[in-house]
Amino acid sequence: MATTATSKAGTMRVAQISKSGGEFEIVERRIPNAGAGQVRIKVQACGICRSDVLTKDGLWPGIEYPRVPGHEVVGTVDEVGAGVTAWNPGQRVGVGWHGGHDGTCLSCRRGDFRNCRNLQVPGISYDGGYQQYMLGPVEALVAVPESLNSVDAAPLLCAGITTYNSLRHSGAFPGDLVAVQGIGGLGHLGIQFANKFGYQVAAVGRGSSNEALAKKLGAHAYIDSGAADPAKELQRLGGAQAILATAPSGKAMSALIDGLAPNGKLIVIGASFDAIEVTPLQLIVGTRSIEGWAAGTPADTEDTLRFSELTGVRPMIETYPLEKADEAYARMLSGEAQFRVVLTM
Ligand SMILES: [Zn+2]
Ligand SMILES: [Zn+2]
User: Fold this and answer.
1) pLDDT digit string (tens) for 91-109?
2) Is 332 in a helix, a strand, or coil?
3) d(CA 313, ligand 1 centre) in Å
4) Nearest listed ligand to the Cα of residue 122
5) pTM for the predicted model, two decimal places
6) Cα–Cα distance list, 302 to 129, 268, 309 (Å)
7) Does residue 7 carry a pLDDT above 90?
8) How far is the CA of 101 from the centre of ligand 2 (A)?
9) How far does the centroid of ligand 2 lie from the alpha carbon of residue 114, in Å?
10) Residue 121 Cα to ligand 2 middle (Å)
């Protein structure tokens, strides 16, 4: 039987998109009840991710509107649905990009939940975190450590886990040269994680304005890709065992490939639609590879949060109230935010 911590008979405010390419609308909705296998989350904070453009502009096939975006959600469990035993009202939880899996497809049967054929993404498959209350399936829930506040934890649920999880699977060992391309929402976390993993960190940015910040975040070297050939600079430092490519530009990523050390890997996490250009010989000589990476499972996210708690890695954020979702989203898109934009409820 469902148990209800607090009976909510009222309504809530949500920021929804009612059609592909539509503007944000703040509307009142009835607070939903948790169904079987779900919890209701009283949302405290939700990060705005560049991928929210998929919902805003209808770039993901099959989105049903109106839709509430948001996949960097932190709040407290407010109600648990039938069959939910592992989570309790009052517990602080998060929901990130991995918003649920079917448990039955071939990938799931192989234990590869990240590549579930029917992967659900909050804000795309169902209403996400730009609202005061959200329903989430239990398999998507993440426990949030006590010492992390909700606005700091939110960006770690997508930007954080993506940089942390891809770097820890990069094959680079402590002491290896690892480059982080792009000093933005993803990159400013990638630099911190790379430093805490014990890598020699080279940050690659455009212009000199981010150099001081990149070094403060933990970069040992800064390469201005506008002033020098970044691949040559990386080779001058010995060649990168891994390059975490965060800036959404296939062209900028292409310029880095020759900076890889033998057996080095370009890890692609900055999503864009333009091509990465590489010749077969660039990959063959030196046995180099290019790999795409998407987030991870909720257990990976808990690792991210615990590691951040342990080492002091934190996102730099700007917060906006839910009512200003349109302004906050525009701020994120502008690229001017330092560095993640977070909505508070
Ligand atoms: Zn995201
Ligand atoms: Zn599956």
Assistant:
1) 999 999 999 999 999 999 9
2) helix
3) 18
4) 1
5) 0.94
6) 18, 22, 10
7) no
8) 5
9) 8
10) 13
